[in-house]
Specification:
heterotrimer; A mainly alpha (255); B mainly alpha (286); C alpha/beta (307); A: 255 residues; mainly alpha; 0% strand; globular; C: 10 helices; 14 strands
């Protein structure tokens, strides 16, 4: 476990010393703070607009950080061959993958916590109350990011830097579309078509399962089972994807 | 240092060329600005998919845009596609109260065109809102008033008011009002409306609620003033053969002591085409 | 047999670069053994398979066939890797870390005792002459400084076996001397050194034994003296005056300069040459056996490959 921790810590440190992270984080914070301006444009409930834009920024920038940082922190490690220094030491390949994943996840988490705090402050300013459901929305976004970061790690370890990022981005997009596509294609005739779609639907994560933003903005009741299953769902996907990453990475020649 | 300054100046120069060309492009009149952008509105399904899990945000953006876009138009211009837009917004975020409430208000600004059709559109929007937000008695109350005052449709007004009354939390004033409307609508005077909304402003639970009630109060006051002041315009027109262009003319003719003012204390205007009173209602934070 | 620190047996590796490119057979049954305490030179031209072999030993690539043991353990065992110190061909480092942080990270990966890790780091930094520059980020280092830090991380775990891939490349003469001294010092302390290079003098200077690797196989293995004496086959003579035009002994090479001549003949013709020169009254100044250098040896193997 010591190797995993050391690799994660080094990943985190690399990110912290990289200017590009601050660019993203800065943009995210500016976006959330500027929700007040958008709120001022509306006739009606400013808080809704602040929360909508804030939560969307939270998701978008977390995704961006996961995608970009996976390229910088993981693909580059393999591409620049610094990974040689690690793997020639008493370190298993799965430890490298897990360490990198945890490092990436902790960066995304740090950013998410920051955005959530800023958003809660903004809502406090606009509505005069602390909305703790925003913490919940942040937590569920983190679940989504855990799944996405697993895919980012998978692609980063196995493909070229930019290709890996694009593929992660594709998973993000498809992950949000899959539920809609699933709904649309269920009306298609033909058992075979439906079966193919079903296979695709279940093999890719349905990231909408972690989307509680509407419920949080409109104060809707949130079923406990939906939250509990979302945790199980995320956990299963993270495990499977990291396991596959390891399966492919073990036995891969590093040139 | 000098060279650097030169480089910066060159960049600034080229950039200013770009800015100037953009300004020039903006000056070229477009053929049919009215409603054209609206033709490109995608379907709610498409927008929901494109928002990648943020339909609420998409609804907000459309809503903000609709407010800014329509605030530029004059009331006699046709408000094309308004129903489509608010339908789209409320498809994306069915629980967006403001989109129903303010959407209906914006639609009502249109004074020309087929008023019967407009009435139908406003009713459909309110019905949709109350289907999605059955608990919101305030929305039903607003609908009732819009139909009672704006469209002078007692039946529809009572229909919505009763919806509001069915909710246990609805204030007693609505029940009393429905009673009068149902039994003896003619007995309900504009003074009653003004008193009703004065009380509602006092009862308001939050700033936004108060603003909305102020708005209704404003309309009630304007309606009363219209009833009182428009005959003066008719008399004036009858005597001089033309409609006065401002209330100052009426004051100078000796028919009024001073320029009449609305509930917010701002002077009224005169619509010369119809020769009627114009109230420049603004949403004011009181 | 426990004395064998590194054993590579019948190693084979073919790369399959892509769908439309031909496969490249890099290692074709490479075998050698490195004995405890020796400095083993791994000599070959670029592309001969040196780095591939080293990557196979350090488990960065997976050979198609063959067996590798380190200190008697399979090379994939964590314990084997713990006893190994490895320096890559070029220093692949993190520009955001300082030299000291990089070593700390390496120490964590090597599972070194945290209590004396800092002390150990200071020792190796001093050993490679980087103690005064260890707190600058590595992005600011020169190639030579990076090589030194890379060497430091290889030494950090007190390895029993040091694998150095081209450790001298990119170093100035002073740096080369320092690295050579470090290698010799560690070897004197009982560390086995596996030293890969394409620079012949480096290998000749410090290696006890040498493997010459050509086209994925070891063509010759032995001490420098063994490899060279076996191949010493010519003599050089210097004498006063021009080369006689009617000299019958076949010359391999000759050169005339300011009143003296130099000729080279095969060992078999040495006596004929002396005889002939004596007959003609030429005054022989010197007669030396030509010791084949590793370079000649390498060239010979390559010529054999081409023909």
């Amino acid at each position: 476990m010591r190797a995993v921790r050391a690799i994660a810590a080094n990943t985190l440190r690399e990110a912290i010393r990289d200017r590009i992270l601050y660019l993203f984080v800065g943009f995210a914070v500016v976006m959330v703070v500027s929700t007040k301006l958008f709120g001022m444009l509306t006739v009606g409930d400013e808080t809704k607009i602040v929360k909508d834009i804030g939560l969307a920024s939270m998701q978008f920038f977390s995704m961006l950080i996961a995608v970009m940082m996976s390229m910088i922190l993981i693909s580059r490690e393999v591409d620049n061959r610094t990974v040689f220094n690690i793997l020639a030491k008493p370190v298993r390949r799965w430890q490298f993958i897990l360490g990198k994943y945890l490092g990436l996840v902790s960066i995304v988490a740090a950013n998410l916590i920051l955005i959530t705090v800023v958003l809660m402050l903004m809502v406090l300013i606009v509505a005069g109350e602390l909305d703790f459901m925003l913490l919940f929305a942040g937590m569920m976004t983190m679940l989504e990011m855990l799944v996405l970061a697993a895919f980012a790690t998978f692609f980063a370890v196995l493909t070229r830097p930019i290709l890996g990022s694009l593929m992660t981005l594709a998973v993000f997009v498809v992950g949000h579309l899959s539920a809609d596509l699933w709904l649309l294609t269920r009306q298609l005739p033909g058992a075979l078509t439906r079966m193919v779609v079903a296979v695709v639907y279940y093999l890719l994560p349905n990231l909408e399962r972690f989307n509680f933003r509407t419920a949080v903005v409109h104060d809707l009741p949130i079923p406990g089972a939906a939250v509990a299953w979302a945790f199980v769902y995320a956990g299963a996907f993270v495990t499977v994807v990291l396991y596959l990453a390891n399966l492919r990475f073990v036995g891969k020649d590093l040139k | 240092m000098k060279q650097r300054l030169l480089k910066i100046s060159i960049v600034a120069l080229i950039l200013s060329v770009a800015v100037v060309s953009e300004i020039q492009l903006g000056r070229i009149p477009e053929e049919d600005p009215l409603g054209r952008e609206l033709l490109y509105l995608p379907s709610p399904e498409m927008l929901k998919i494109m928002s990648l899990g943020n339909p609420g945000l998409a609804a907000d953006i459309l809503y903000l845009w609709s407010i800014q876009y329509y605030s530029l138009f004059k009331p006699h211009e046709r408000f094309l596609y308004l129903e489509t837009i608010y339908n789209l917004i409320t498809d994306l975020d069915p629980l967006y109260v403001d989109a129903y409430r303010i959407g209906a208000l914006i639609m009502q600004i249109q004074t020309g065109g087929d008023q019967q059709e407009l009435k139908g559109a406003v009713r459909r929007l309110f019905e949709k809102g109350l289907r999605n937000l059955p608990e919101n008695w305030g929305l039903a109350e607003a609908a009732a008033w819009d139909f009672f005052i704006r469209f002078r449709d007692r039946e529809t007004a009572i229909y919505f008011a009763e919806m509001a009354v069915r909710h246990p939390e609805a204030p007693a004033r609505i029940k009393r009002m429905v009673g009068v409307w149902r039994d003896k609508a003619s007995a309900w005077s504009l003074e009653d409306s003004i008193a009703y909304w004065r009380r509602a402003v006092e009862d308001a639970e939050d700033e936004w609620d108060r603003t909305m009630c102020m708005n209704q109060l404003y309309d009630a006051v304007a309606a009363r003033d219209r009833e009182r002041l428009e005959p003066l315009l008719k008399t004036f027109a009858g005597r001089y053969g033309f409609c006065p262009s401002s209330w100052e003319d009426v004051v100078r003719a000796g028919a009024l002591r001073e320029v009449p003012r609305d509930a917010f204390g701002d002077p009224y205007g005169i619509g010369t085409e119809t020769c009627g009173l114009v109230a420049f209602k603004k949403f004011k934070d009181q | 047999m426990t004395d064998i620190q590194l054993k590579v047996k019948d190693l084979q590796k073919t790369y399959h670069p892509g769908l439309f490119e031909a496969s490249v057979e890099v290692l074709k049954g490479l075998s050698f053994e490195v004995v405890r305490g020796e400095i083993f030179g791994f000599l070959g031209a670029n592309g001969a398979g040196k780095t591939t072999t080293i990557k196979a030993i350090t488990e960065l690539i997976y050979p198609d066939a063959g067996e590798i043991t380190i200190c008697g353990l399979p090379h994939t065992a964590l314990e084997a890797k713990r006893r190994l110190g490895f320096m890559t061909e070029s220093p692949y480092i993190y520009p955001h870390l300082t030299g000291r942080e990089f070593l700390r990270f390496s120490g964590e990966l090597l599972r070194l005792d945290r209590d004396d890790l800092e002390a150990r780091i200071s020792v190796v930094l001093e050993e490679v002459g980087m103690d005064d520059r260890a707190d600058r980020t590595m992005g600011t280092y020169s190639k030579g400084m990076l090589q030194r830090v890379a060497l430091a991380q290889a030494l950090l775990g007190d390895p029993e076996l040091l694998i150095l891939d081209e450790p001298m490349s990119g170093l100035d003469p002073l740096g080369r001397r320092d690295v050579r001294d470090i290698i010799l010092g560690r070897a004197a302390a009982g560390v086995t050194v596996f030293f890969s290079s394409h620079v012949i003098p480096d290998v000749e200077m410090i290696c006890d034994r040498v493997a010459i690797i050509v086209d994925g196989t070891a063509r010759a293995i032995g001490t420098v003296a063994e490899l060279v004496s076996e191949e010493a086959t010519s003599y050089e003579a210097t004498f006063v005056g021009a080369v006689p035009a009617d000299l019958e002994t076949p010359l391999q090479a000759h050169h005339v300069a300011s009143g003296a001549s130099w000729v080279r003949v095969a060992t078999a013709q040495r006596d004929d040459l002396i005889q002939e020169l004596g007959d003609r009254g030429a005054r022989v100044v010197s007669l030396n056996p030509v010791r084949t250098t590793l370079e000649d040896l390498l060239m010979k193997h390559y010529e054999g490959l081409e023909s």
